[in-house]
């Protein structure tokens, strides 16, 4: 059964290995897998209003739109249709309210923000907030957090391993014994 299972699942393993290899080399996939270019422009514009750039990097600079796209081709593939339906409803509602505006992404920032305030109670907008923050803070290999900008924004220090004492909170702890100084019986 082991060889048969491995043979049946080999394409998924090969894809995961290629993904890991690309991530290790710092190559980010900036292709769209689920969203059309028009959909990606609107998703990117929404994300950019949720975490705007300026003096600090925001969702646009961190490539959050690629995370949102890629996650619906991978781990959230089961909810892809629901997300796309929510996006279509958002775009239809926008077109009805502002028929001469073109797409949501074509508006200036103030007009985008005003429209988002009118839909902030919708399930789609709640999902966009969640996905934007995930894309900003996830591992860069998942498509967002380009150049680890999200981590820099929140002050996360990216170290693979830490050595004790870990920080101010445990330096003077009476029971703390650094690794290597433990008595081994």
Beta fraction of the residues? under 5%
Helix/strand order, N-terminal first: HHHHHHHH
Radius of gyration: 22 Å
Distance between the termini: 43 Å
Number of strands: 0
Q: Ranges with pLDDT <50 over ≥5 residues? A: none
| Form type | globular
Annotation field: number of helices: 8
Q: Helicity, in percent?
A: 40-55%
Q: What composes the largest sheet?
A: none
Broad structural category: mainly alpha
Mean pLDDT: 82
Oligomer: single chain
Describe this structure in words.
The protein has helices spanning 2-24, 37-50, 59-62, 64-71, 80-97, 109-118, 123-137, 149-154. With 185 residues, the protein is mostly helical. It has a domain at 27-154. The chain is globular, with a radius of gyration of 22 Å.
Features of the shown structure:
mainly alpha, 185 residues, single chain, 0% strand, 53% helix, 8 helices
Write the layout of secondary structure elements.
Elements: H1 2-24, H2 37-50, H3 59-62, H4 64-71, H5 80-97, H6 109-118, H7 123-137, H8 149-154
Helix pairs in contact: 2-4, 4-7
Short structural description:
This protein is mostly helical. It has eight helices and no strands.
